[in-house]
Amino acid sequence: EEKARLLTNLSGAAHYFDIPKLESDIKTKLNAMMLEHPSLACAILDESSKMLSGEELVLLAMERVRARPKAALLHWNKGVPPSSLAGTMNGAGISSTFPSIGSGNSSSNAGGGGSGEERGGVTSLNASLLEQVIFDDQSTASELTKFLCLKKWVEGCKHIVSSDDIDLPRKMLDTDEILSSRTPIKPTRKAIDDATPAATAQPNVTPPPSPTSKSPSDESSIVSQHQHRLTIAKHLAEKLDLSLIPASDLSTTITDAKLISTHDLYQAYRLQALNAERTKSKVFVEGAGLVEVNGTYIQRGVHEGTPMYNKEGVWRDREEVFRIFLCTYSNGNKSWCLSIVPKGKEPGKTTDLDFYECPVSYGKGGGITGGSYGASAENGLGVVPSRGWKLVNYGQPPVPKCSLIVGCLEDA
């Protein structure tokens, strides 16, 4: 993380002194570091948001956080293939320019050595960026992920939090507003007015003191710092939709963190109890040539009167939710689809990323019923077929088989 912050500041210096090749090489290096270790995006975002020339790095870092929110904020790496990015760490001649930060040392110098120390993550963000990043409209993070980010930030924020931070306006900001909120430190280039001698001073490109080096004042004491962070996190936690967090997590992780009021927890439990009245089931997908779709899908939500099943995973280096749902085509035919539904979109639209589908007529009576969903369940439309799937669009052979974990009905 220290290297990422230093390189970010060095990029600002290269911009100031008008050395575009050096600036480009550093940005290439930082981008490769974020691809290898997504959690470094938070440290780079935190540092570049303070720089007048940090627009491009802010955009790069936010893109990485949006693509892999759990990996970038919570160091989650489930579903990520073994690292194969080492070769890219030498791109654009950065290793020859900075031999000590080439690919051979990237693991240890970037915090990825044998020490096991976490690199970056949500704890690298200062208080003014916390809401903008965690509650970003373009993020795919779940409500539980957002809560865990707040909890982790309270426990390990690397910045001193002042009383002024507690009074910051709680406003949803996009990337443009992150850029406009930066504190200018120097002109972007060496175009300085010769008539102003004071403007000839060189920019301060010395890396800032480590955010963990907190001064021994009353405000930065361990107790008061934790209280400041807790106050901010409690306020932001009010934005969470607790009804979307599994009951098992509400009773353990959420309750123990003490960020949610008793009243809000009660309301969340009430909604969870109402949702639990419907039979929950799981579908286990296996054998698909596209390995990303394999795994356990949990019943959550309803579409066209039948249950949907969801599984979190990674597709093309983005954290996504894979769904199994019933879809009615324009010609009236119905099929079960295994797809990714873009955030904010309804299932069954042309925006879906479809992998496999199966007509509802196949395997009728075999599969998992969707609980009490009226006529759909009675006529077989509420059943996910075990076999009969076929390739569509982004799928790869062989086709999957759906094993029924709860409420299983085997094929005849």
Task: Describe, in plain words, how this protein is organized in 3D.
An eight-stranded antiparallel beta sheet has the order 9-6-5-4-3-2-1-10, with no helix packed on it. The N and C termini lie far apart (about 55 Å). It is α+β, with helices and mostly antiparallel strands and about 400 residues long. The chain has 15 helices and eleven strands. Helices cover about 35% and strands about 15% of the residues. Helix 1 runs parallel beside helix 3. Mean pLDDT is about 75; it is low at about 80-95, about 95-115, about 170-175, about 185-205, about 365-380 and about 405-410.
Write the layout of secondary structure elements.
Layout (H helix, E strand, L loop, with lengths): L1 H15 L3 H17 L3 H9 L6 H13 L1 H6 L19 H4 L8 H4 L17 H8 L8 H14 L6 H4 L8 H6 L41 H16 L9 H11 L4 H14 L6 E5 L8 E9 L2 E10 L2 E11 L5 E7 L12 E7 L7 E3 L5 H4 L4 E2 L5 E2 L9 E4 L3 E2 L3
Antiparallel strand pairs: 1-2, 1-10, 2-3, 3-4, 4-5, 5-6, 6-9, 7-8, 7-11
Helix pairs in contact: 1-2, 1-3, 2-4, 3-4, 9-12, 9-13
